[in-house]
Write a structure and sequence with these properties.
The chain folds into two domains: 5-128, Enolase-like, domain 1, CATH 3.30.390.10; 142-424, TIM Barrel (Alpha-Beta Barrel), CATH 3.20.20.120. 38% of the residues lie in helices and 18% in strands. With 427 residues, it is α/β, with parallel strands linked by helices. It has an eight-stranded mixed barrel with strand order 5-6-7-11-12-13-14-15, surrounded by four helices. It has a three-stranded antiparallel beta sheet with strand order 1-2-3, with helices on one face. Strands 8-9-10 form a three-stranded antiparallel beta sheet. It has 13 helices and 16 strands.
Length: 427
């Protein structure tokens, strides 16, 4: 039996965008204390679990989370007090039952998620284990390839940059995490110099990617390839490219509206657009290539490209087992994005990953645009062994902390871990 929960205390803190979020601290009867905090997305799928906001215009423009904090302190805490902290599944189930809805609309996914994360963190400390050790119970670890967002667009830039939301570099050719992050940093700074030399903006968006004013959605890819080469690496061999299209953000009245290119495309035309990209650039993965409810379009997309690259559903699946199962049954993708706060508990997130693994799908553990300094998802990614972690640019402390945690884990493993490399990617 593990240690007993003595108290659970939630509070309102600020995330990396200066917006309120929930932090939870847990104290055990053995004196151990642990805390965690909840990230928040800007580009959110309509099928995600509900993030409870106060909607009081007099506080934080309505974005306060005092209701969620109160729900933790007055409803969840009394129900979990006196329980064994190591019984994660049971405790997560109790919270879901207390909420009583499928989308956590009563207590708030942010309230439940904060407690669920803090339970895992505190239990690991109580057991004298690193978080990744506690979550995995294995002696063999695969360290993920970082998917590093270096040019931002879409809703992350208020539609001032490209239509596509994230242009990522993927240093799969490195031999370990430390080398991968060096390659990424060198490429990032080569891109910064390149943008500066061209008179383009080097300001950064929420996730640390640059926001240049460009004339097409392909131009950022050309800039990145140039930067990879200037940093001394070979595109496609050392470093490939991944795209988060976030197509739901520009899907209007049945068409994909590419603002910057003045085009309105049907799903089939959007798919042809991607085929052209794949034929001309070293792209290894596309996330959210079509809208969150365009199931027919996704099926055709997977028929055309599913044997060539990794096709990841984010808004389509929202880390929800029911939607992932539908995607598997209808054969619409070959990978799923994993965001713990999107579903609300560690237990449900692991169930989503387990389903993906059982069906030989890929999965990518991901951050959100509104982050905290917590490195939970770094440990979680290592524990789950998926081989890919998406957590922003090598810039901004809340992003870099997660990469630095991977470096620490690699050092702790003293050569016993394996860097996932290109084999981590479906196809």
């Amino acid at each position: 039996m593990g240690a007993i929960i003595k108290s659970i205390q939630a509070r309102e803190i600020l995330d990396s965008r200066g917006n309120p979020t929930v932090a939870v601290e847990i104290a055990l009867d053995n004196g151990v204390r642990g805390w965690e905090s909840v990230p928040s997305g800007a580009s959110t799928g309509t099928h995600e679990a509900i993030e409870l906001r106060d909607k009081d215009p007099k506080r934080f423009g309505g974005k306060g989370v005092l209701k969620a904090v109160k729900n933790v302190n007055t409803i969840i805490a009394p129900a979990l007090k006196g329980k064994d902290v190591t019984t994660q599944r049971e405790l997560d189930e109790i919270m879901c039952e207390l909420d009583g809805t499928e989308n956590k609309g009563n207590l708030g996914a942010n309230a439940i998620c904060g407690v669920s994360l803090a339970l895992a963190r505190t239990a690991a400390k109580s057991c004298g284990l690193h978080l990744y050790e506690y979550l995995s119970k294995t002696e063999s670890y695969t360290l993920p390839v970082p998917m590093i967002n270096i040019i931002n667009g879409g809703i992350h830039t208020l539609m001032q940059g490209p239509d596509f939301q994230e242009y990522m570099i993927v240093p799969h050719g490195a031999k370990n995490i430390k080398e991968a992050m060096r390659w990424a940093s060198e490429t990032y700074h080569a891109l910064k110099k390149l943008l500066k030399d061209k008179g383009l903006s080097i300001s950064v968006a929420d996730e640390g990617g640059f926001v240049p004013t460009i004339n097409s959605n392909k131009e950022p890819i050309n800039l990145i390839i140039n930067a990879i080469e200037k940093a001394g690496y070979i595109p496609g061999e050392h470093i490939s490219i991944a795209l988060d299209i976030a197509a739901s953000c520009f899907f209007i009245k049945g068409k994909y509206l590419l603002r910057i290119e003045h085009e309105e495309l049907a799903a089939e035309e959007m798919i042809d657009y991607y085929i052209n990209l794949i034929d001309n650039y070293p792209i290894i993965l596309i996330e959210d290539g079509l809208s969150e409810d365009d199931w027919d379009g996704w099926k055709r997309l997977n028929e055309k490209l599913g044997q060539e690259i990794e096709l990841v559903g984010d808004d389509l699946f929202v880390t929800n087992v029911k939607r992932i199962k539908q995607g598997i049954d209808e054969d619409v993708a070959n990978s799923v994005l994993i965001k713990i706060n999107q579903i609300g508990t560690v237990t449900e997130t692991i169930a989503a990953i387990t389903l993906a693994k059982q069906n030989k799908w890929g999965f990518v553990v991901s951050h959100r645009s509104g982050e905290t300094v917590s490195s939970f998802i770094s440990d979680f990614s290592v524990a789950m062994g998926g081989g890919k972690l998406k957590t922003g640019a090598p810039c901004r402390g809340e992003r870099v902390e997660k990469y630095n945690q991977l470096i620490r884990i690699e050092e702790e493993q003293k050569g016993k871990s394996v860097y996932a490399g290109k084999d981590a990617f479906v196809r």
